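Hi C.,

You asked whether I'd gotten around to modeling the 554-residue construct. I have! Everything is below, sequence then structure, no commentary in between.
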Amino acid sequence: MQATDIPLKPSSVLQLPSGMSLRRLVYSWLLDPDIKDNLRAKFDGYIAVLIITNLLVMVFENVPGIYDGNKAWFHGFDIFSIAVFSIEYLLRLYMAPEDVEFAKSRYPRLRYVFSIYSLIDLAAILPFYAALLLPIQTDLRILRILRLLRLFKLFRVLVPAIKEFRDLNRGRTFRQHVHALVSPSEFGGKLHDFFDLTIMMWVVISVMAVVLESVDSIYRDLAVEFVVLDAIAVSIFTVEYLMRLYACVEEPRFKHWLAGRYRLATSPAAIVDFLAIVPFFLEALLHHLFDLRFLRVFRLIRLMKLTRYTGATQTLYAAMKREWPVIAASAFIMMLLVVVAASLGYLFEHDAQPDKFENIPQSIYWSVITLASVGYGDISPITPAGRLITVVLALLGIGIFAVPAAVLSSAFNDQLRIERETMQNELYAMLEDGVISPEEQHLIDREAARLHLSAPEVGRIMERARQQRELEHTGHGGIPFSMVQERPAVALQQYRMLIGQLNQIAELSDRQQLEQMLAVPGDATDLERQVWQLLAAQGGSGKSSSSEASLSGT
């Protein structure tokens, strides 16, 4: 892979040569894998989302409580999906002569029709047309089940990613392969992104299943499906956890085979991964000894696994860590105010409402609700002193509870600024050699994704880094060396300015002392001595034209 010349300017506009045929234009714009800035990745991504949505819809079709009242919506979505998949199939069939894989064939479209991808695409839509066109009245549920074949369309995206992953990791060990798959690096490629996307998808599916289990009408119809779904999710999360534990020693901070893995296992992210799977195994192994059904609610911890895949969480954690003294001070003041208010509320309201202000711990609930300006109304003072305290608490709560939020918001914005400036400094260091290597480009893309920077924003940061680098490598008077090299008139102007300054130095300085310092061996170069002799010969008269001629000869 060759390095890219700077400056790099990400572009979202596809540039195509004129005179191109319509078929070639559409193929280049939509499906050509060799054009970086086309819509191929987005097109494949939307198709993948539609395929996964079809799978979820098929699950909900088996819930009478959901399906019976929404048959028209389910049927409409199926028609929409078939329309999209049919258009995709016809587009690929029409543009088969432009595809390198089929272009060399005498009949490229026929070759495409019998390719594995075409057969999968065709199988994804045939059940619908078969159910629509068959004249006999029969039970076509088997054809509806065949809609699961749409899942195989995902191989169109997975197969190229697997090939790329193999190329990037050729010659590396199995453990390094596993590490590249589960951890962000220059060796992961798109397959690592798909791995992360799969984990996130199963996190969302498993959490949705936990939520829907609480609905009796849905749980009665899908009790077995929920168990199977949870078992699949736990299997995936367990394999992921073991893979991370096995491959972590490839990172310097987890280098030791035992201590490194222990350090990973006790990290916050790994603890969340462990808590996401342990309730399932505890309930499966100890259900005959204890009633552990309450552990099922802890499956919602899986939602915290998503924090691994968003840079905003890391930024928020860094902001909280930096501003923790201020946040802790604010929390202490709030706790102190809550306890004092609860004590006063108990003092003034206990005799009037002994059932509601029975003790100070019970009064703490009232003080927190009042300070938070929520005021549920289930506990409220009736004495004048109690109501006065409530008014004061409500007013204080507007400011006191807003302090931590304001501090955290300011710290979060400041942390984002710091991280973007850090990225700009890293870009400046990368631009020192004048090129952006593929590895450096990968780091830039990963950092941009973590900071949620769009391509134009990354382009602006790179441009600022380039300008900063150019300003630090400038000639006399702040003129960039590149301008001096490219424009002779600017070079002549700078040359004359330097000669004028040299003449001023010769006129204003003590010539005898300057000559003595220049005469000391090692303190001045021969060129410096020659220039001084020429200036001294001119008598410091300031005639720059004569000096220029003499210095030009030198």
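If it helps when you're writing up: Residues 1-14, 540-549 have pLDDT under 50 and may be disordered.

Thanks,
B.
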